[in-house]
Structure formats: C-alpha cells, structure tokens
Design goal:
The protein is of the alpha+beta class. The protein has 3 domains: 7-89, no CATH class; 124-231, Butyryl-CoA Dehydrogenase, subunit A, domain 2 (Beta Barrel); 248-395, Butyryl-CoA Dehydrogenase, subunit A, domain 3 (Up-down Bundle). The protein is 48% helix and 14% strand. The chain has helices at residues 7-22, 26-33, 40-52, 71-83, 91-104, 107-118, 233-246, 251-267, 275-307, 315-342, 365-375, 385-395; strands at residues 124-127, 143-147, 150-157, 168-174, 185-191, 197-203, 209-222, 226-227. The strands form 2 sheets. Strands 1-4-5-8 form a 4-stranded mixed β-sheet. It has a 4-stranded antiparallel β-sheet with strand order 2-3-7-6, with no helix packed on it. α1 (7-22) packs parallel to α4 and α10 (315-342) packs antiparallel against α12. Bound molecules: flavin-adenine dinucleotide (FAD). The site of flavin-adenine dinucleotide has 18 residues, from β1 and α12. Flavin-adenine dinucleotide is lined by residues 126-129, 134-135, 159-161, 211, 377, 380-381, 383-384, 386-387, 390.
C-alpha cells in the first residue's frame, strides 16, 4: 500500500499534535516522564480525555463509535500519541474484546457493552490462560454447566493482567468434552462483581502488581452473556488473538526510547581507555535501530488487510516476534547504559554513610531495571515466540 502522506494527512497530524500539546492531561504525561507507574484513576482520566474527543477507539468501525479514520490516519494517531509520551490504552476492552462483540455479538450485547468501553466507564480483563493451559490453550478446564438460563462456572484463570482493575472479564470456558479439544469451548463475558469471583494478586519479578489468578467458584453467569454459539468459542478467541498480536508494535514509543538512549550515551561518563566498550554499545544501539526500522516496515505491510476491513492475518505472528524481541533489546541496552552511568558514581562503601552516594545514581536506572525484568514476559504473553514460529511455519507449509 502507498503510505506517502497527503496534505490532508499532514494537517491531521498537526491537529493530533496540537491536541496532545494543549488539551490532553499534562499530569499524566508528566508522571510517565518522571518514571512513575500509572494508577487506575490515571488510566480512566487518560481514556476519558480521548473519549471526550471521540478518539478512544480509532480501530472501531464508525457505526459503533470509531472516528472513521483512514488506516493512514490511525497510524499517524498512534505515532503521535506515543511521541507525545501519553500511555497506550488498556487493550483488553478496546482492542481485544470489542472487535469480537461488534463482529459476533447480538444487537443487545453491542448496546450493553460497547458504549461503556467507548466512554472508559468499564475496564476488561482477558481470561484465557489456566495453570495447565497456556500455549496449549485448548486444554483449558474451567467448566460452565448450563442450569436454566444461567451457566455455572467453576475453575481458575491465571496470569490475568489487570484483573484487579477490571469490571468485566471475557473467558474461554469448557461447555463440552469434544473429541477435538478446540470444540466445546465457549466465549463468556463475566461481571467481576458476581458472587464467587475471587482475584488473587501475583507479584512479578519487577516488583509490580500487574497479574492475578482469578478463581471462579460456583459463579452464575446469565446465558445472554455468551458471545456467539455455545461450543464455538475457539473461532472468536482466534479472531481476538489476531488483533491482540498486531497491537504489540508500539513503534513510535520505541523510537522515543532510542532517542533517549542516544542522549544518555552521549552523556555517559566514559572512563579513559574504554573506547572498545563505547564502540560496542554504539554498535548495538545502531543494530536495535535497524531492527526497529524493519519492524515499522512490517507493520506498514500488515496494515493492508485492515485497510480492506479484514481482521489481521497470520502476519500478526511476525509482528509479535519482531516487536517483542526489539522491546527486549531496548530494555537490555537501557540497563547497560544505567550501569555505565551508575558505576562511576557508586559510592565507596568503606564508610558508614556510603548510602548518601546512591542519590547521585541517575533517576532512570531503577525504572530501566524494572522495565528490563518486565519485558522478559513480552516473548511469553499473547502466545510465546515458539508458538508464533509454529504458526508461521504452518503458513509456509513447513
Ligand atoms: C506478563 C504476562 C501477562 C499475561 N497476561 C495474560 C492475560 O491477561 N490473560 C491471559 O489469558 N493470559 C495472560 N498471560 C498468559 C500467557 O498468555 C501465557 O503465559 C503464555 O501463553 C504461555 O503459556 P504458559 O505460561 O502456560 O507456558 P507454557 O505453555 O507451559 O510454555 C512453556 C515453554 O514451552 C514452550 N512451548 C510450549 N508449547 C510449545 C510447542 N508446541 N512448540 C514449541 N514450544 C512450546 C513455550 O514457548 C515456552 O517457552 C500473561 C502472561 C504474562 C507473562
């Protein structure tokens, strides 16, 4: 597809830039720039600001409240949001479940859920993985048994991102033991306030609370919360995953990180005689930048089916691998730069007041280390790299 930008696209870019400069909440951008993590109230404020402008769901069809942008405008918007240093939206409602609801849901379900997602009144979680069903997702055992006009749900989901923030969770549940395990799976939307739903925190290696176990004990879910046909959940789940895997690119945010790294590298307090180390870091930074250029081209190529109104194809797997490996390479370099900056300032520990010297260590070092640890998960969630490679190999007929 032709990605050259027209005069209208340039004017659109300026409108978006002006919005993030003048209207979007400055305190949220300032918090992120200061290395702070955002709370749910910050995410709500961010998403309600975008919603008030009609810009919260660029990918949704106009009939459901999308802004009716071209694919180029959507690309420009994502780029400018990240360039401005604003947070990406919480994806589970807006990017993952919404396309399933507007593609496969009933008119009542669309009325009931899409408006609340679009106005940032409700947040969602994704209940796919279970303790014995991650890569092999179709082995899931959370069971839903029909009882009149309700399903009774029992089981456990794990690694559920932001379930502690969520009002709703979309779940894959087993309604039948079919010979082919992908059959007999049903897609259910569950109100997190339903009696019997328990959220148990999991603290990750970066020290943060992002993940949870979600336990369902005798949870009554109305049948009208089922998306599509009973037993056909696998089809809807795959549709959702193609949107999920395409959403990981975040090219402009990575570009910003690389620009930050160039500044840090220029300011690094090199010791005498370490030219070899300097060359090594510069070489690796250049390699990451080339990797990012390749990712950007791949994303642009993958936009073509979206422009034609189709769901992303298996190229989503290529983007998933390229995006997450680039993210990890960037976080590795940040940690190395933190070392370069911090080591010369690391205090002499022979005196009792050695901790005073720690204040001289640059502020970016601790968040960089936390980001490095958290980014290890990127090649696992949304389907591990090995699983993406299996999908690509199948596509190539290998
Ligand atoms: C930070 C984070 C956030 C997450 N958020 C969510 C969420 O919100 N909702 C949700 O439902 N899930 C979520 N997950 C779960 C995630 O999708 C799973 O962790 C992932 O699918 C891998 O499953 P697993 O952990 O069971 O590992 P396993 O499937 O046990 O895999 C272990 C290893 O074996 C490899 N492997 C497995 N099968 C194959 C195969 N066939 N061929 C080659 N190699 C194979 C894998 O690549 C991996 O290296 C999250 C995970 C993390 C880490």
């Amino acid at each position: 597809m032709d990605m050259r930008q027209s005069a209208e696209d340039e004017a659109f870019r300026e409108t978006v830039q002006a919005y993030f400069r003048e209207e979007y909440p400055r305190d949220i951008i300032a918090k992120l720039a200061n290395g702070q993590t955002l709370k749910k109230s910050d995410m709500v404020a961010s998403e309600q600001a975008l919603s008030a402008r009609g810009w919260l769901a660029p990918g949704w069809p106009a009939e459901y409240g999308g802004p009716g942008w071209t694919i180029t405008q959507r690309f420009i918007f994502d780029e400018e949001l990240e360039r401005a240093g604003a947070p990406n939206v919480s994806p589970m409602g807006l990017l993952y479940v919404a396309p399933v609801i507007y593609t496969f849901g009933t008119p009542e379900q669309k009325d009931r859920w899409l408006g609340d997602i679009l106005s940032a009144r409700t947040f969602w979680a994704q209940g796919y993985s279970e303790p014995e069903a991650g890569s092999d997702l179709a082995s899931l055992r959370t069971r839903a048994v029909l009882d009149g006009d309700h399903y009774i749900v029992d089981g456990e989901k794990i690694w559920t991102s932001d379930a502690h923030y969520a009002d709703w969770i979309f779940c894959l549940v087993r309604t039948e033991d079919a010979p082919r395990k992908q059959d007999g799976i049903t897609f259910l939307c569950i109100d997190m306030a339903t009696p019997g739903v328990e959220v148990v925190p999991i603290i990750t290696i970066d020290g943060g609370h992002h993940l949870n176990r979600v336990v369902f004990d005798n949870v009554r879910v109305p049948v009208e919360n089922r998306i599509g046909d009973e037993g056909k959940g696998w089809t809807y789940a795959r549709h959702l995953l193609s949107y999920e895997r395409t959403s990981y690119a975040h090219v402009a945010a990575k570009r910003r990180q690389i620009e930050d790294m160039k500044r840090l590298l220029a300011d690094a307090p090199w010791a005498e005689g370490d030219a070899g180390q300097q060359d090594d870091v510069r070489h690796r930074l250049a390699a990451v930048e080339v990797q990012l250029d390749a990712l950007e081209m791949t994303v642009l190529r993958a936009l073509a089916p979206l422009a034609a109104g189709q769901a992303p194809g298996d190229e989503a797997s290529i983007i998933k691998i390229a995006a997450t490996e680039t993210a990890q390479a960037i976080t590795e370099l940040f940690v190395e730069l933190a070392g370069l900056h911090a080591l010369p300032k690391f205090p002499d520990r022979s005196g009792p007041d050695w901790r005073a010297g720690l204040e001289a260590i640059p502020a970016f070092a601790a968040p960089a280390t936390a980001a490095y640890f958290l980014a290890r998960a990127q090649t696992i969630y949304g389907g591990a790299t090995e699983i993406q490679k299996n999908i690509i190999a199948r596509q190539l007929g290998l």
